[in-house]
Amino acid sequence: MELTDLVKKKQRGEKIAMITAYDFTQADIAREAGIDLILVGDSLSMVIDGNSSTLPVSMDIMLYHTGIVLKGAGAVPVIADMPFLSYQTDLPSAIKNAGAFLKKGAKAVKIEGNHPKLVKSLVSIGIPVMGHLGLTPQSVNQLGGYHLQGKDEQSAKELVEAAKQLEQSGAFSIVLEAVPAYLAKLITESISIPTIGIGAGVYCDGQVLVYHDLLGLFDKFKPKFVKRYARLREIAVDAIKNYSSEVKTGKFPDEAHSWN
Ligand code: KIV
Known about the structure:
Layout: H1 5-12, E1 16-20, H2 24-32, E2 37-40, H3 44-47, H4 59-73, E3 78-81, H5 91-104, E4 108-112, H6 116-124, E5 129-134, H7 140-143, H8 153-169, E6 173-177, H9 181-190, E7 195-198, E8 206-209, H10 211-214, H11 232-249
Parallel strand pairs: 1-2, 1-8, 2-3, 3-4, 4-5, 5-6, 6-7, 7-8
């Protein structure tokens, strides 16, 4: 699939499924499962690096993970998240950083917030941009935590306007995070590019979940919008307990796993 097919999917009413991935095996599994898009999210700061926010992650770390995801993604388009301070300081650095992801092989970058001029500049030089509105985790300190956004009329109107501006600037899609379903519906119906929801209800053109949340690998907290489709953490803990106990009792390695 190409990114240009996404608008056609929206027009046909076909939902888009995106997942995050951070390494070769995760991307390979997502590809085999038939996912439409893979996002190398800066959420890796929390689920891979063990930080309490997405702020610490650097360009070097994001580029490294984008590279190893690409090895497993095959033909699935990979979108790279631009980390905090990689696009906010000045236009030349933003272009250089966004371009570095495309040089690695990513098909597009994702940028949090409403930055119409920046999006226009990137798109004009051939760098496709996915927007991200609503709860933008890089602004967690300003937002006062990870809360539902767009609850009052004023902020809802601002989000609709921001989505329209991003579309006019040339963004190919917009992630809507933690906004009420009726607002996501209004935004989705107000723009011709696809919306990808996370905690934004059923009316978005697609959905995204964090790999570790979807598979039940991350248990530090669970936002309301996370659906765990598996409980891999429990399975992994049980397996390692079993292994450890078999090592200690001399049950492993047995004949089947040894050369005599
Ligand atoms: O970093 C991330 O994983 C994201 C998704 C939650 C959209 O931005």
